[in-house]
Amino acid sequence: MCTEMKVSWLLTLSILAATASTSVQADATVEYLRDVKPLLRERCYTCHGALKQKKSLRLDTVAAMLKGGSDGPAIRPGAPSQSLIIKRVTATNLDERMPPEHEGEPFTAAQVKLLSDWIAAGALAPADEKGEADPKDHWAFRQCVRPPAPLVANSNWVKNPIDAFIAQRHTEQGLTPQPEAPREILLRRLYLDLVGLPPSAGEIVAAKQNRSSRWYEETVQRLLDDPRHGERWARHWMDIWRYSDWWGLGDQLRNSQKHIWHWRDWIIQSLNADTPYDEMVRLMLAADELHPNDLDKLRATGFLARNYFLFNRNQWLEETVEHVSKGLLGLTMNCAKCHDHKYDPIRQTDFYQMRAFFEPYHVRLDLAPGEPDLTVDAIPCVFDGQIETPTYRFIRGQESQPDKSATITPGVPEMFAFGDLTIKRVPLPVEAYQPERRAWVFDAYTTAARKWLDEANAGIRNSKRALAAALRQEADLLAPIESDTAPTAAGSSPSRTLTLEQAKIAVEEGRGALRVAESALAAAKAHFVSVERRAQAMQARWLGTDEDPASMATQPEKAVAAVKAEREALAAKARLTLIEAEHRLAKAANDKKNSVQREVEHAREALEKAVKLAESSIKPEDEFTQLRGAQWTPTRFLNSTADDPMVKFPAESSGRRKALAEWITDGRHPLTARVAVNHIWTRHFGTPLVSTPFDFGRKGAMPAHPELIDWLAAELMENGWSMKHLHRLIVTSASYRMSSSLADARMPHERTDSRTNIVKDPENRYLWRRNPIRLEAEVVRDSILALAGTLDLTIGGPAVPAANQENSKRRSLYFFHSNNDRNLFLTTFDGAGVKECYRREQSIVPQQALALSNSKLVLDSAKTIAMRLAQGSSDVSGQSGVDDENFIRRAMLSTLGIVAADSEVAACRKALEHWQKEPETSGKPDSARAHLIWALLNHNDFVTLR
Amino acid sequence: MIDCQHPNCRSINRRAFLADLGMGFTGLALGAMLHRDALSHTTEWASPNGLPHFTPKAKSVIWLFMNGGVSHMESFDPKPMLTKYGGKTIAETPFADAQDPKKLAIERLIVPDANGNQRNTLYPLQIGFKKHGQSGIEVSDWFSHIARNVDRLAVVRSMWTTDSNHGAQTQFHSGRNMLDGEFPTLGAWVHYGLGSLNDNLPQFISIGTREYWNNKDGFYLGPAHDAVPLRIDPKSPLDFGQPERSFSAAAQTVGRDLVRELNELRGVEYPDDPTFAARVASYELAFRMQQSVPEVLDYSKESEQTKALYGLDLPHCREFGSQLLAARRLVERGVRFVQIQHGGGGAGAWDAHSGLKANHSNLALAVDQPIGALLEDLGQRGLLDETLVVFATEFGRTPGSQGSDGRDHHIFGFTVWMAGGGLKGGVVHGATDEIGFHAVENRHYVTDIHATILHQLGLDSRKLEVPGRKRLEIDHGKPIWEIVA
Residues A58, A64, A70, A72: what is their CA dihedral angle, to the nearest 10 degrees? Predict the structure, then answer.
């Protein structure tokens, strides 16, 4: 194929060369297009082209250069030294030089010469030279209008409008689509794509026997309704939205948030419920302003909480702007941090206007029902903590150089503005800024206190029982001794003495333990009272401040009671600590006594202090510790080694993020839906429509099917932003169902010439076949466990920590995953990077082969899979086991989605025979079969979605 | 086929080429390539073909990185003025202008903590130093084995960087401050740019503990360009390097043959599929690696003399010595880039905030003899001419004392040396001021080291640039021509 290309390319070159030598004029034109124009485009168009026309000057056509700007014509044909452009690019005075300082390097001597030579030769223009298109007309910046589905010749092939757009390009390019893939491959494709797990052997057999004409559509619906679908697609969106578990140094949180998995669970649940895309975006950006008291929805703001960075506010907010823009809008706003965007209509100010939406926000942990300890569980979410903090533009992006002459207000780039952006402050319900008022908060504290009380009571019972047993034992030993073992002068039997000794120790221990249990009960009781009194005092205060004047009277009394109860509880706890220490001292080995003795002394001092405090009189200004309903996640922006001063929860929110969310999800926004459908398409087809999913701007890749994107975007929006609707549409299209094979078609009447297709479109840009996809890391691991039948299908919950991962059977998306902690097996298969992952890598490296041949996961699972397949029920002969041939066929179908050819069966049989002769497996057919499964898991098609 | 110039043909062609010959790279980041191809429609761009851009002087690099920050004054840039003015504040000495805030402005702080601060009271040198070799370069007495080889070294005493915390480790490898994001490291660029010299070994290998920076190199070049971590343990040198359950070699071979045969049978349906061919090739490479890597670490054929040279018989040298012997054996077999990190724990063992004397003398004891041995061994075998050895660290340490007996992080001036690979030996380039505070003569940012290495390998970093990933002038750096032979 390439030989042909080479010929045509050489031909073109020789034609160009021939043309060039015929006349000076042609030579100059060629040089302009080849050398001069690209130079000007690279160095000058940003300010003197369609994007901007500084000094009213454009340099994107020769005509425009001749016309010039407010300083006159840019060029004088034949006279380079008198041409303004040459004067400017060679100026030594920095005030005059172009490009200006900080906007670009000066032209090199060679570049100046190129430009001069061209002007000297007459600055001839090519015929019909067109200037740069207006950025407003850039395909992705125009408002999205649904184009009609084209009428195409190959209408038999078309299953829905998606195919019409694809077929249109096929016709234009002279391409023939590959036929539909065989049913077993389609089934594997649907399962892995929609739920991320392979079909079971039984499901494959059932599908192959299904006579219904709607088997495919029914399968699609069933899989979309399957709760595993939410898990599969959540991982995709977690890539795009930058999910990361918390990370830091040791226990110190530096990035993201503890318990951030609540956001992951929200994504899974929302996808399973088919929550509209626009609603999900609104909640992620502003649930705290839209639903300030709805914990379920607040989980969505993990999207922003994830950007938390302990040390540097600037880096935090820059990342937020960058990825809100890239992930939701396909705009590289980060390019405008230091200067105006070089390609898109985004001014430097726009970057800071975008930042201003986020300037007030901070992160906090809200108490989750049932758990008062925020280190155990809580909901990470965001709130506007610093509404008045001004945003400044940083000169050349330098944090150290804020331009304080003007405060930047929130806003959007002019080209993408429609109507007025209304930002209104949002008054918050009192439970949002005093979260301790939420109904479940006191419940959580009281329940925990009661639980401690119950445990303490049980502790007493247990200690009493243990003591009684020890006493009985002692009594038995002290009972009158039988005459025949009467003590002699030489002393009693040594074993019996020892036992009595032990029994006495046990009694002592039992007494000590009971003392501990009794003081634990006292502490638990005091704690319970303290919680109750504090809750009552806080309630009285709210009523007092709210509307009930009567409660004002009781308020101070209750506060005093709360302070008192809390102090008593502290004393009880201090007493418990002391008694525990004393108990340890009694048991301690001699060499440890000293250090335990010190603990006892410390505890005693602490107790004395606590008792003194509890006995002292209570002053009006004495405060009790509030039962808190949320806690601000502290920052250290101030370059000190302590936390910054606490940010309080204000009674209102700025309303900025709500306004931003409304702008982004407005149906008139040209980018949001287009970007979303591209993300979705990418995961179904393995390749995106726009190959730069984070950049839909003028520098981004031009899609081969822009009309299809528009149609899909309109379809998404007009169907209530339902993602399941879009999934259904895409996977039922003929385009999705094509074979990925490059060989001749298997059905003679539909024979296609893929050689021709390959020559015409080697990269499959126009989708004449299905692109094979290297399975994502999570799917590789999950599939192995699913085939073995050992996958734990529990949905949601805290991330599986690194130490437990090796033996865990949970789905891979639940593995703790951060910049610091990544699972080795998943990393080997290109698991998501947590900082940016708009497309997964599909690398092919030998370490993957090593992981599949040598990991415990694979070697253990191979055995289990072999046993499962051997026990399969669908054996025609009705035998309990299956013979080798059936085993081979079934194994290839289950693991690879392949109907084995006879040659493949023969190859497998030969290997099985070899293995059965091996000393380590001989006489153990199961082991030989496990080896076969191992080999199939190492087959190319196991990690490939055909 | 390789010559095909059509832009649409180029990438697929190249991939097929690499897969067919099983050479070039340890792997292919297909996603990354497709992505770049999409960007390249409008530009004149080709992914590298694995050949140098001009005649190389060196073919391999051994990159020795001391985690935590080595004191330049107590290693390769001795400053007697510290001893003379020890105990005085800098303000009280004739060198007070070192603390001119303007000169300190290059710092870009990321992680503020108790470290990375100005230390005002000069701390005397904790070790003596002597002139060595014909060149008479001064080296501290902690590094006598390296000093014996001083005429092989090009010592650059005028390095500077910007991150005053250990993110400078990342910065030294990628050339970028962590605030800027994540960028490929030097090893990844070399791996990306140069083809393989050995089909049985990964071409970019990392040994030892990577501390502050995370375990990646490729970033936007793709994970195929991450270093392959290697342990000096013949039984388990690679992750998943040996079966984690008993599995006889004979049974594995039968399986491997079966996989090959099944792939070939199924491959009929996918003629010309470059990913298919690449995967089959990667399986073959994995199998070969599984055998060839333990062979590299089998030192039984090394002479007793060689083993003693690296200090394998000395408890304090054994670990690092066997890593360096592995490095020699790897480059001998054609591996391009061997990256060895020394000193685990905290943010790197050399991070002597207190007890500098004990810290540095112990660590020097562990690395000095093996490094001296490496230089001599490479030299004897004629390998030093084509192997570039680099001794680097993320920053120096403060001339002033931290606490009573430590030194803090210091970004304004520190030392790196290189040897072999077509560089001059026995030269000192650049200088810090008299108290080792600022690099004052021929100042070099970390990427100048990268540029020098790439130049010796015959690579032009501008030709490796990827569309859509604009690099700045400072990212490319400038070769230090004065030390090129």
Answer: 130
